[in-house]
Write a structure and sequence with these properties.
alpha+beta; globular
Amino acid sequence: MTRSQELKGLFRHSLDLLAEARIEEWTDLFAEDGILEFPYPAWGVPSRMQGREALLAQMTMFREQLKVEFSEPEFYSAGEDGLVIAAFTGECTLLATGNRYQQTYLSVVRFEQGRIALYRDFWNPWLVMEAAGGELAWKQFLPTARPVDHRPIRDRS
């Protein structure tokens, strides 16, 4: 198996775990200090989480809020350097309302020593907020709306 095939398989496996709501196993794919970034998060969703504990806390909420079926990813890169760039769609259901929407994702993932070091996920936050009934409904929907650091990722220490 080539490095490219291995990386594609790891990425597909990560999507399968998310779709099956196996969040603990999904976070185990990350390096101990692995990073998950959402450059364009929905209101109340942090744009950056680091470490498996932070990932587990955030993504457990994902499991409680969404049911997702992912398409087969289209890979733009999966190279020897451990970088994977993939686009895919999700057929999503917001569990609180039953409303469905289709989301397009672009993920840039860096694997180091077989673990995810960085997972940068680009998605449209307005779609999930619309499925909740709009921005105001989304804000009321979040069980624990917490302050979020909205500074650009590069400006954080």
